[in-house]
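Exam revision sheet. Question 4 asks you to relate a sequence to its structure. Input first:
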Amino acid sequence: MPTNRRSFIKYASLAAAGNAAGLRPFGLLNSMAQTTTDYKALVCVFMFGGNDGNNTLIQFDTKGYANYSTIRGPLAIPQAQLLQLNGSATNFALNPNLPDVQALFNNKNAALVTNVGTLMQPTTRAQYLAGSLVPTNLFSHVDQQNEWQNAAQSSATESGWAGRIADLISGQYNLGAKIPMITSVAGDTLFCNGTSSTPVSVSPGNLGGATCSEGTTECAAQQETAQALLSFSSGLSLIQADNSITTNAYAYALTLADAVQSVTPLQTVFPANNSLASQLKQIAQIIQVRAALGVSRQIFFASLGNFDTHADQLPLQSALLATLSPAIAAFYAATQELGVQNNVTTFTMSDFSRTFQPNSNTGSDHAWGSHHMVVGGAVKGGQMYGTFPDLALGGPDDSGSNGRWVPSTASVQYAATLAQWFGVSAAQMPSIFPNIGAFSSGNLGFV
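Answer key, structure tokens:
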């Protein structure tokens, strides 16, 4: 189904639709929220623009840091400012703007997966230079965003891997649910799109969605007209289908709004003036009313943008990571408050990393393999997974000569690991991840 039709779901509600659809009351259902069993949720945080993994996870040992400092030049962060990791990762440190992530990692509630990127098959530098099969349009924002989200390694694929999961297992886990399995708090996105399933998209802090700025009489008239149009049978299948989608959208939005309003607000404090925190707070509120919604599996999509740091990277990335870190920590704290920290796994994705060698504008350019964070009580935390690249320009892991690391772990392996934890069976994996068989392992073991 085209994205523009899915967008009918975004920000939609009609106050009058709820009672007619039998969506109230929620008080009794929400009183049973903590009794739900076998609940699991995946929460994707997409960092649009290509987060620089090289300044997210940094070698901390004397030799490794010296190499980093020499090559990164004006982009090198002073060693004294870095946040050293504990346990088996003491030779590595995080960006100084990730103190909450450091705490989660050191407390074994977060893991780091290194040098992950889009791949068709295991690929070395030599194979890449020899013209080995690789995903389409490497280093292109749009294509790589799509390929991370659809796990098909071609931006032409119109469904996302979350959407395909919903296609296959919604009936198994969410039979009779009042909302779709997938909710986006960051607008329409390929990641959420299925072939037979449809996501719901909501505006953080405004589950009621669309608003009317005119007076009461005018708003009531608009709602009455909208409802009349939706109930009109046109006889044209395409228009009628859109009417049905829009009607469902109103019902979904009202269902969410009513459910959230019927429970005691979360006590966890989320950072103010933080766009990602607002999104994650909304997700936490929806998870809080999972029993009322009749779901035992949910997937959420949130995002943070502007990671395309071709110039002035240090202040720009610092501000973005300083937004990311407390938001993720607050969300984890909210899952603890709800008693579902072992049932909710949050993970990052991004277009790609940035070149290890800086450009002339104190920035960095589009690259390939990057490092990602996975957070949750079920995560086998305090560890690094995958193979950290050899940080040598033109070296064994460089696709060229300026530090575009050939991924040692495929994004499809990363996604498949999360999907298996979520409840996707081995038999269902090839339908969701068509090229997972090209890799020796479909489970990286971090959750």
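Marking note for examiners. Confidence is low (pLDDT under 50) at residues 1-36, 210-215, 238-242.
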